[in-house]
User: What shape does this take?
Amino acid sequence: MRTVVAIAETGSMSKAADKLSLSQPAISAQVKRLQGLVGGELFSRTANGTALTELGKLALQQARRIIDANDQLLRLGGSDKSSVRRLGVSQLLAQPLFDEFSKEGLSNAFVSAEHSSEIRRGLLEGFVDVACLFLREDFGNDLEDLIVGEFQFETTWIKSRDFVARPGAPIPIVTLPEDDWMIGPLGHSEIPYRIVLRSSDSAVRISAVRAGLGVSAMPSALVTSDVVRSNDYYLPKLPPSRAVVCIREGLVDSDVRQLAKRLTVLLANLNIDRDSQGDGRPRG
Assistant: This one.
């Protein structure tokens, strides 16, 4: 079971072998044996490595449950041999997380900092145990039952200090893939724009804004000192950002609950910091 999880997380049988301190033939033998038991292929080779098949995704969910049950059984006897907790955090929240948590506070966690859509997928497919992410309306409501903490933040436009829009020209936008944070309000306001950069990497987007390529948007509480909030009249008001803390379905362990509580406190502190300036709006 741990072999299946390791391959799914690393995307490579060789990397899974290194992670588990096993030889690659041993990894291959375990996969072959499990595929024989379930009656189908669990992984397929792609240009980017090893990917789960549809059957593999189902097997992974069961593998997670088996490992969780195994660890809980060990703890009944006083054993502390539990799995490392997989923490998923939105890239925008990674720096506040590292600032707030000490190294010891993350010693029993594997941190995955990705776009919120990837963190959401990890929760649903079992790659992530505890998550702190932003939810958009187009994500649907499949995480609602997993939410244990929630806040709303004002969303603001950002630009470089010396950025000036050209009169009459479409507004240059730095955005996320399939993003409606900015595009929806611009479209509804019938404001002309052109996308100059699209990236799921928040650091890339902020670098583009800092370089003056265009304007972008982010939660007010997370605006860094190297860019400025843009309150220009030609930019429409943006909907608030909904930040949530979630626990993967079926996890009830005290350490998981404690980790989720600390993440909720982190969001609350960010919210308080913005409230002192009249921005944040707590919802949890």
Summary: Residues 275-284 have pLDDT under 50 and may be disordered. Residues 155-239 form a domain with the D-Maltodextrin-Binding Protein; domain 2 fold (CATH 3.40.190.10). Residues 11 and 180 are 30 Å apart (CA to CA).
